[in-house]
Design brief:
nine-stranded antiparallel sheet, DNA Polymerase III, Chain A, domain 2, alpha+beta, 17% helix
Length: 367
């Protein structure tokens, strides 16, 4: 393998894939990046077995070939070289020579044949979607995913196609976030896949700001093509909870408040909440909402917020972090919180629920 490539092009390709390369690996080959040089193009692939990222750049190929090299070391070398630099890469025996100006580096390698690559994912559905739509689906729901829950199917995000709609749903058992978008084809069969947490976070990082991408869903993998980048993730093999049963039916008890005013009041009250349980109490009446918090040091906070409220008087407790996450995800000047009673979950949306493509459910707390 022998090639010449610009620093800018190589750095861009490395930045796209380096996120899945961890410094400490159980398998040495997973600390490496697969480099494949042919047809005036250098392809780069990185994986941690669960998530695979592939990118590439134009290069002058003197001799085609493939090899794996330590990903972080190569990335750090290329990043440290001056802008506008040109790199000459050549495989010499079991070492990759990297030369740029007066700088010369020699990196260890491992055979390309040992690198685990996901080839065909046997896609059952493929969709063309705008990048901003996928960004929105992820950004409005990712925070509700569980972290290291024994219910492994919660440690990820449900992606569902159903009747011309694609839907993202995440829950940790205490709260739920849902966002959906229209698909062009109304006659698609229903399908559900669970993308692991790391895959969701890596996908958020790699997506651009505009353009379109291709989403392919298979039985065991999901694959997304966006420009020069190809993202592939294993799916979580499990059954996601029936989230529709978690969403309470609408009642006449709901309040509408200025989103920023309510958010700031909750943030202030949270300062004196119990650091472990983060509980706050809401008293909602026609006259307004009162937010109260206290902690084991007998310190107390109280906030009064003007709201529009129709329904019965309610006193209810919530984890303030969950409320703040949900209210923060609502992109509207006002927020609507629907409540049934002190023992039921609340639903947070925009005031005009018919126009809402996202909703959030937060379970109550006993205080």
């Amino acid at each position: 393998m022998k090639l010449t490539v610009s620093r800018q092009a190589l750095l861009g390709a490395l930045q796209a894939v380096i996120g899945v390369v961890e410094r400490r690996q159980t398998m040495p080959i997973l600390a490496n990046i697969l480099m494949q040089a042919k047809d005036d193009r250098l392809a780069m692939t990185a994986t941690d077995i669960e998530v695979e990222l592939q990118s590439g750049c134009e290069a002058q190929i003197g001799m085609a070939g493939d090899i794996t090299v330590p990903g972080r070391k190569l990335f750090d070398i290329v990043k440290a070289l001056p802008e506008g630099a040109e790199l000459k890469l050549a495989l010499k025996g079991e070492r990759l020579s990297v030369q740029s100006g007066r700088s010369r580096f020699s990196l260890s390698t491992l055979p390309a044949a040992e690198f685990p690559v996901i080839d065909d994912i046997e896609a059952t559905q493929t969709h063309e979607l705008p990048v901003d739509v996928v960004h929105r689906l992820l950004d409005k729901t990712y925070f509700a995913m569980a972290q290291q829950d024994v219910r492994y199917y919660l440690n990820g995000m449900l992606m569902e196609t159903d009747g011309g709609v694609i839907r993202a749903v995440a829950t940790d058992g205490h709260r739920l976030a849902l966002c959906q978008a229209e698909l062009g084809d109304k006659n698609l069969p229903s399908e559900q896949v669970i993308v692991p947490r790391k895959g969701v976070l890596e996908l958020q990082r790699m997506l651009g700001d505009q353009g379109s991408l291709t989403v392919s869903m298979g039985k065991n993998h999901i694959r997304i093509h966006s420009g020069d980048i190809r993202f592939t993730s294993k799916l979580i093999d499990g059954r996601f909870p029936d989230y529709q049963r978690v969403i309470p039916a609408e009642t006449g008890n709901y309040m509408v408040a200025d989103r920023d005013t309510l958010r700031r009041a909750l943030q202030r009250a949270a300062i004196l909440s119990n650091e472990k349980y983060r509980g706050i109490r809401l008293e909602i009446r026609d006259s307004g909402a009162k937010i109260m918090a206290h902690n084991p040091e007998q310190e107390e906070a109280e906030e009064q917020v003007e709201v529009e409220y129709s329904g019965e008087d309610i006193e209810i407790g919530f984890n303030v972090t969950y409320l703040l996450d949900a209210i923060g995800a609502v992109d509207n000047e006002s927020v609507r919180i629907s409540l049934n009673d002190a023992n039921s979950s609340c639903v947070i949306t925009v005031p005009d629920i018919d126009q809402s493509d996202a909703k959030y459910v937060v379970m109550p707390m006993r205080l």
